[in-house]
Amino acid sequence: MTDEEQRAFLENGYTAILTSVSADGLPHPVAMFYVTIDGIAHFATYTKSQKIVNFRRNPAAAVLVEDGKSYEVLRGLLLQGRAEVVDDRDLALTVQRGLLEKYSLGVGVGQGELSTATEQLVRRQAAKRSVVIMHPERVVSWDHTKLGGTY
Known about the structure:
This protein is an alpha+beta fold. It has 4 helices and 7 strands, in the order αββββαββααβ.
């Protein structure tokens, strides 16, 4: 994929596999919802989660986003690099609002003001979360739709 195709693929992806490194050196992959801010993947997760513990100890990270149900249409993006853990309630709130918008059938910030109850829920969620920002150092992508039926 071109750089622009990669950016669009990441922006429009649904579930990402976010991988940290456990204390014993084994990979710790988890499925995560995410949003992009300025083209960079942002995840909100419980501050006490294992992935946050792992990233605070070792920021090595990988993110995999893929789609396609048969070989000729497989597409994917692998980001390898460093995860930055940010404990900032305003950023966590921004990410939580973005997640609500992306994964709740378009209901959210882009559709106008949140209801008072929804805003309170998002604020409660954000208060318990840290943000993981993926800073890729290596990007690998594939798009089998470009192979024209030859593999």
